[in-house]
């Protein structure tokens, strides 16, 4: 059985695979959201001459400046030193208040019990990331943002996905069915659900919630054994570009909740952290994030870490909020880069991870949800 253990290996997979995935970039056949254009390189052969003459004011003697007369005043008053006294005694029996200290990072697992990815795929994903850095926010057109507000989001089929994607009559409603041979794949939308230029609380001065729901219809084509799962579904969000041959939460700039092992993954290429129970048939699950202006100004250390917004990640089952976590929580040291990309500084896309044979429906429009976040859209 394959493992979700993702070693931090040097080197990558075959060069042809790397070239193929680099060329596929973020979304195959996505005309609405394209990567930024590379900047023009400077010709090293060009020679630049400095302007003639000294800089303005250099060597000028007509400024009228003269030092004040007399010696400079003493910075230390001429007073006798105070008499010495012993330091105050520290009462070691007093217990310090650690309630204001941040919680320790979650202790993750080295591997998942459901086991469905190889170390080679993890190494290839790391190489893909190094070749494809995170994109800056895109300044999308107003009519495109209006389409996002109306939940006109289309699911795009990644190269590894084998199955059907069937749009329904109402905008934002999709039915999906995968084949039993479907390999790890992340379904992403053609447009972001969170736009930095339009939605960031730093620009709007109000909170923004993103959310979607998914109804599980079947998992697997013969059984749902957690110890030997042959199929699974994951829900989450990713910052572009993201390797679509990986489930959400496994790589940089992503988070996800996986229904095969019930664990949460935040830039976690290993075994995740205990969070919930596995997804069940006919269950409606939802995932959301709320970005809000900070209730307290971030400290210098937090600002250096990029923490500038309050972030709440939440999870729902059948219309009820059943869990969540602080989006700024400290991650295990194995998560290189931490939460970079999912702190509100990048555009974010809904992500649905699948492997094996599964059937489900996706709902992006609020009228289709069982749970209704107050500040969504």
TrEMBL record:
Has the keyword Calcium been applied to this entry?
Answer: no
Compositionally biased region (Low complexity): 12-25
What InterPro entries does the entry give?
Answer: B30.2/SPRY_sf (IPR043136), SPRY_dom (IPR003877), SPRY_Ssh4-like (IPR035780), Ubq-SigPath_Reg (IPR050618)
Q: Which UniProt keywords apply?
A: Membrane, Transmembrane, Transmembrane helix
Q: Please give the chief subcellular localization of this protein.
A: membrane
The subcellular location is:
Membrane
Q: Where are the stretches annotated Disordered?
A: 1-126
In which residue ranges is the amino acid composition biased (Pro residues)?
66-85
Please verify whether the record's keywords include Ligase: no
Q: Which GO terms describe its cellular component?
A: membrane
Residues of the SPRY domain: 207-368
What PANTHER family does the record tag this protein with? Answer: RAN BINDING PROTEIN 9-RELATED
Name of the featured protein: SPRY domain-containing protein
Q: Which organism does this sequence originate in?
A: Massarina eburnea CBS 473.64
